[in-house]
Here is the input.
Amino acid sequence: MYSYTIVAVVFWLFVAASAITPMVVAYKTRKLTAETIRTAIEKGQDLSPELIKQLSGITAMSQDQKVSAVQLRIAGAIVMASGIGTAAVATVFLFVIPVASPFVYAGAVLVFCIGAGLHIGAKILRQHEDEQKHSIPAA
Here is the structure.
């Protein structure tokens, strides 16, 4: 009985680590960039905006990029496929570990709903892009 609990806890710890790790890496990257720029200013370096953009590198690039509707649809398809795969795993768990199966089904539904949300976001973004293309600029 306790081994099932351990498996469930390890699974959710992995999910949490997978979600939190990119945020921590992005935070540490921004902090390191800020420290580099601060050190350069303290040493009397003349920093132009181009140099600051070059020093910040990834951060500046990620802010300029826009997400397209196609990218959201692709991400939605991948996430929904993951939800379907998780449901297949839950079906296998139904025969092997019946106690864990409902929780895995719940995770599958959650993942599938996130994928559906990405598809809806893609549709809204496409409509917004179409409205911007067809709007008449002010004279």
Notes: Residues 1-65 form one domain. DSSP finds five helices and no strands in the chain. The mean pLDDT is 83.
